[in-house]
Amino acid sequence: RSTQSRSSAASDVYKRQPQPRNAAQVQVKFTGKIYPHLAAREQHHLDPPMPQRKAAKSDLEDKVNPLFMKEKGDGFFKNNDYYSAINAYNQAIKSDPNMYDCISNRSACHFSLFNFDECIEDCSVVI
What we know:
By secondary structure, this protein is mainly α. It contains six helices and no strands.
């Protein structure tokens, strides 16, 4: 009895469903990408172009205190972070090229990293 009621319930569901739609051919037009970094859409010709960042020199690079950078490099060297120490010494040398202690400390970093050619170059500058 329950199987008959189930089959009749299933047939009722099929009777209530709408008929399938008629097939038709749809034309889809795609727009080309004007800006390759953005999603393509039709309003691109109305949008203003994306602003480009200017490669401006940072004000901090000009005002770096070489003694501060030397101390930072010394701290990195004590923690065996030789790459960071080299970067700090490079900033100090950019600010004051006559800081020979930074050049000698940078040569010690290169020596610890087995960059012997750079170590020799720095040592020859100091001597």
